[in-house]
């Protein structure tokens, strides 16, 4: 029999970016907030002398243990889904801060086009431009409505950046100046300007200078050590939830984090949620935490899994197209080209997670799609994140995979290779979705989440187009040999691609095509908020974290309003 605990105002399931932001905002507003974190506590001290590529980058020290919980995967409904036994395509975080600890820190905003993609596309190109079986829809909110929340998140992080000439309007400059430029970045800027494009420094959560945020939390200046992605920052110079928002919530005295607490069910009476059930992973004891408001603030997959396991909302059915939970799962594509240089050498082993330069000339509808058989686009960038020695071994494709020539080219090209890359937008398709696996279960006896996903014709055409543009930039940069990325085939759960998974509990204006409204409040249970990239109706062509943070601030505002008037927010 589970032990029932005293009721609180808000319980959050997961303590990463979204759980941390809600805690900071709601606890400061006087609400009693409990954060349930199935992992352990972490601080910057845990990463002292942690520049261990093997331990963190290759053996995934900070990531979810897939021997206890994973997902199953298949490309289509005709295949049998099998469990992902080793992390590969994406890296799920665990412990305090979640994936917000091991991110690179690239903090782009989505564009106005993203939020009104269906309306703007049809207005300009006609309804036939969006092909059958693509579940493209507007978000139920505009960029101008989102802008104040972007501003809040960027101030919490102290984002270092410069004005993007093609982006939506900003109410304020970036809190701190852009990071340093380097010869590699200047090479990209020169080439793209020659081609008529408009480069700018990537907005970065690796700060260019010390900064104090609105919660009086100090964030330090980046040391350019090149250990960002898959690592925690021992300097406190990469903005993450543990540095920026969680301490602010703790200071109020209204916030409690319970570690090693694995939530197994959201309790739902058919009209409202009443709390959550969780298990202490060490003692095995079960608890019920009653709450006036429940916020799902876990990773994309887990948010969707909680809704499906708890029977909240109608599961998506690909046969009929009905149902909303699990619908519109999206990923990303990675067009690009690698340039090999015979003479010139670069300090590519130095860098930071968000040290880079981008162009948005091929993002969204910034270029004419009239004669193109796809919509949207993607950011094109060069980044200097730091090539660590174990996982980076660039050689031209005609190099043997072993032997004397392989060794010679490995040494030669380690500092003579530059990659121009892109993140391409991902649009929802009728056959790409999430549901519960009928066969496999996790360590607690609960069904695994099943992913049915494959690249679409839209993905393949966009990938081909953007790859050609990246190759042109590489050639203009002076590479002696440019190797474009191969064309897309079937999606594979390995190797690593990005951790930019979205959808499954999407937002919108219509309960028939969305799970939550624009405050991320569940249509079927008005005291349940589902916060995170699970709310994205499609995935944009840049990193999602800025939009995740902005939506968390909007959800916090929505919870405050709900606690005052007790009504559905529409």
TrEMBL record:
The keyword Flavoprotein applies. PANTHER family: LONG-CHAIN-ALCOHOL OXIDASE. Belongs to the GMC oxidoreductase family. This is GMC family oxidoreductase. Keywords: FAD, Flavoprotein, Oxidoreductase. It holds the Pfam family GMC_oxred_C. GO terms for molecular function: oxidoreductase activity, acting on CH-OH group of donors. The keyword Oxidoreductase applies. Residues 428-552 form the Glucose-methanol-choline oxidoreductase C-terminal domain. InterPro entries: FAD/NAD-bd_sf, GMC_OxRtase_C. Coiled coil: none annotated.
């Amino acid at each position: 029999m589970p032990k029932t605990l005293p009721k609180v105002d808000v319980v959050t399931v997961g303590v990463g970016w979204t759980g941390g932001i809600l805690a900071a905002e709601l606890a400061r507003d006087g609400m009693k907030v409990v954060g349930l974190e199935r992992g352990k506590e972490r601080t910057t001290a845990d990463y002292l002398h942690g520049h261990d590529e093997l331990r963190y980058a290759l053996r995934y020290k900070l990531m979810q243990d897939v021997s206890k919980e994973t997902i199953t995967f298949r490309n289509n409904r005709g295949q049998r889904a099998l469990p992902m036994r080793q992390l590969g395509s994406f890296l799920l975080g665990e412990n305090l801060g979640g994936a917000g600890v091991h991110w690179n820190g690239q903090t782009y905003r989505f564009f106005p086009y993203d939020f009104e993609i269906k309306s703007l596309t049809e207005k300009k190109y006609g309804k036939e431009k969006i092909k059958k079986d693509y579940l493209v829809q507007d978000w139920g909110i505009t960029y101008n409505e989102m802008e104040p929340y972007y501003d809040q998140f960027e101030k919490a992080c102290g984002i270092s950046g410069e004005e993007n000439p093609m982006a939506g309007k900003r109410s304020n400059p970036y809190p701190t100046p852009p990071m340093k430029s380097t010869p590699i970045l200047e090479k990209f800027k020169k080439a793209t300007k020659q081609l008529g494009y408009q480069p700018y420094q990537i907005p970065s959560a690796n700060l260019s200078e010390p900064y104090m945020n609105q919660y009086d939390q100090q964030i330090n200046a980046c040391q350019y050590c090149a250990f960002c992605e898959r690592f925690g920052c021992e300097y406190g110079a990469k903005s993450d939830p543990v540095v920026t928002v969680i301490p602010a919530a703790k200071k109020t005295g209204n916030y409690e984090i319970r570690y090693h607490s694995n939530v197994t069910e959201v309790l739902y009476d058919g009209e409202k949620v009443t709390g959550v059930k969780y298990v202490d992973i060490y003692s095995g004891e079960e608890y019920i935490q009653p709450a006036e408001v429940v916020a799902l603030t876990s990773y994309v997959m887990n948010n969707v899994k909680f809704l499906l396991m708890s029977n909240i909302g109608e599961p998506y059915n690909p046969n009929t197209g009905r149902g909303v939970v699990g619908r519109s799962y999206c990923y990303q594509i990675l067009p690009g080209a690698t340039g090999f240089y015979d003479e010139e050498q670069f300090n590519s082993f130095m860098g930071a997670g968000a040290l880079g330069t981008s162009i948005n000339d091929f993002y969204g509808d910034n270029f004419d799609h009239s004669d193109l058989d796809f919509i949207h686009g993607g950011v094109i960038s060069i980044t200097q994140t730091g090539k660590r020695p174990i996982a980076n071994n660039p050689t031209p494709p005609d190099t043997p995979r072993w032997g004397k020539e392989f060794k010679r080219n490995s040494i030669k090209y380690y500092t003579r290779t530059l990659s121009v890359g892109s993140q391409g937008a991902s649009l929802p398709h009728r056959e790409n979705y999430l549901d519960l696996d009928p066969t496999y279960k996790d360590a607690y006896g609960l069904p695994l989440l099943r992913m049915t996903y494959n690249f679409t014709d839209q993905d393949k055409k966009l990938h081909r187009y953007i790859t050609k543009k990246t190759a042109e930039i590489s050639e203009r940069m002076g590479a002696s040999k440019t190797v474009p990325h191969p064309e897309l085939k079937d999606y594979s759960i390995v190797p690593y691609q990005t951790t930019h998974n979205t959808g499954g509990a999407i937002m919108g204006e219509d309960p028939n095509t969305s799970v939550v409204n624009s405050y991320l409040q569940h249509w079927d249970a008005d005291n349940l908020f589902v916060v995170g990239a699970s709310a994205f109706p499609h995935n944009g062509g840049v990193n999602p974290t800025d939009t995740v943070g902005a939506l968390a601030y909007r959800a916090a505002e929505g919870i405050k309003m709900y606690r005052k008037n007790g009504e559905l927010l529409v």
